[in-house]
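Comment thread on ticket #2218

A.B. wrote:
> Attaching the input chain for the structure job we discussed in standup.
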Amino acid sequence: MKKHKNRILCMGSINMDLTMFMERLPEPAETVATDNFATYPGGKSGNQAVAAARLGGEVGFFGKLGDDMFSKELLAAMQADGVETSNILIEPGATAGVAMIRIDAEGINSISFTPGANALIRPEDVQEHETLFEQYGFLLITAEIPADTLFAAIRMAKIKGMTVVMDPAPVPKEPIPRDIPPMVDFIKPNEIEAGQIAGIKVTDNATAIECMKALREMRFQNPLITLGKDGCLAWNGENTRKFLPPDVEAVDTTAAGDVFLGAFTAALSNGREIAEAVEFASVASAMSTTLKGAQTSIPTRSQVEEFMRQERKR
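C.D. wrote:
> Ran it. Output below, let me know if you need it in another format.
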């Protein structure tokens, strides 16, 4: 198949989210009752793939699922949003990843996670599907897969001339090999992950800027540090800039970071400059917090663009 420079290949986790909404999160050893439970398609990479597809990208996925009912539901959900799933490998006898999510009245969440088949994708799978990387221009990848597979995919992407967008969540326990940062065109940690990678605790704007400088010194090319309701600190190739999100009433922040990165990559794939892509992603991310669920909360490109038009009129 001919390579398309604007197509996005997503790699990482696909999970089923088992979600409870409650007045407050329980303390250790405490039980808090609620009658509000739902299942939602999720996983950081699954969310990012759907976000990129809804927000204007042409998206394919490379990963692993099992042959259980959750895996079948997750495949169907991604296909319904136009994500190409023919390169998702099925591991017989394995199960999909599962995330158990609790969300309080202010939209703050607490998450526990088991990877299931996500943990079974290997560097050998990357090598065996080398030609797949020739068909896409962007690799959008998260760290919810084995670290050696993560690094193998990034190396393969650069051999094939792809733009690499990395979500380092969760931060790999293994040291990041020295050859990896220069291969990563964009890295988007949140403030906690940025601090773990750079060794600088982010507590305010000044420490966030110091953390940005440290990531640059590690040779990450264009870091983006998301700061929750305080916006995003971005390196645009020349300097650091702060982007603030629109003011919205948040009810569920579960997939906000994933929506941001999916929207950002989709915008880049459509030829937008970094600042434009960050602004677009900030609005999409904020809009996603106004609805419950992970993939169920992701807006479409037309909805985001209409929101931005209305904001400019104010």
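A.B. wrote:
> Thanks. Noting for the ticket: The mean pLDDT is 93.
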